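Long-time lurker, finally posting.

We've been working with NACHT N-terminal Helical domain-containing protein (Leptolyngbya cf. ectocarpi LEGE 11479) and I want a structural starting point before designing mutants. I don't trust myself to interpret raw outputs, so I'm hoping someone here can both generate the structure tokens and explain anything notable. Sequence follows.
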Amino acid sequence: MTTDISDLLSGETVESTAKAAEVVFGLAEVLEKEGPNVQKLRPLVNQLDSLLDVLNSPLVDIIEKGLPFISIATGLLKFYLDKTKKPLTLSKCVALVSQAAYLESFKVSLQDENLLQKIGKKPASDEISQQTQELGNLYLEEDEARRTVTNFPSSKLAKEFGQVLQARLEQAGLDKESAQMLKTRVIWLTPRYMNRVWASSEEAVKHLGQPTFDEWRKEQVKYQSIDDYLRDIIQLQPCEKVFNEEKLRFQDIYVPLNVQLLDNQGKPLPKENHVSLEVWVKHDLISNNNSPGQILFIQGEAGRGKSVFCKMFADWTRQNLYPAYIPILIRLRQVKFLANNLTETLKN
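Top reply, 14 upvotes:
Generated this for you. Predicted structure of NACHT N-terminal Helical domain-containing protein:
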């Protein structure tokens, strides 16, 4: 069985993509004031290809208007159930839930003043608006819907959504690497918000066996544990005192390092002069973000700044790449036992 993603949302498509984005804003307003009122929502729902039409508006509007995408999704699931009086298929649910969760993830990831200044208020070009509209015509098979639920980052939807978002971000003013970082972060944060929609829509999706509120709560405990570690440990690394000096922090004296790249035999690469360590590591992570078990080895004499670099880079990763990457800072002097793998080593 296949399901058109727009089947849950659309009827007569609006002519203007800019107007389509305004329809999403209207949905949020109606749901906030009226709840899933069929009569009030029907005229708006009938004008949408997908919730992703909102990406055609100036992206800062998503932040400034604080669109509640999770509430929109739960409200629309209830609307569809009230309208059809039939249980929703997994494909229909995933089509809507993935869009709302992706946009919520994007909204959260975009709350950075530097990014907002670069992006500005430029609306989508006609070409990108067309690409966004075409997302509403994607077909999602039941098997692919299940894969999307269990592993969104590797799903077809993540790939298709990501291609359009990357193009939209570059058109809005971000360079390719920054757009790729933001896109990757959005993809990996999306499952967290998908689970939140499932938990908030138990009545509409209970027949599908999706996570209950209790299951979602347990999942949130795991997420919260990671968030607490990043806030209490990693975020504070650049602020650590230098030699217990009251007014001197590592972030105050940190100087970016240059390194000499080596080949697999430990010999200097002939065509490579000294390069920025930060630039090299960031580029390597971003360009190889699908390479599991990747290792970067940095060698240098004592006092050259390796440990301080790790502190600073761990916090940069927290700010820019989490949850695609989760920075964990391990001090080797605290490792008392070496096992055959990292997990067993850390247990001891």
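Before you design anything, note these points.
Residues 232-347 form one domain.
The radius of gyration is 23 Å.
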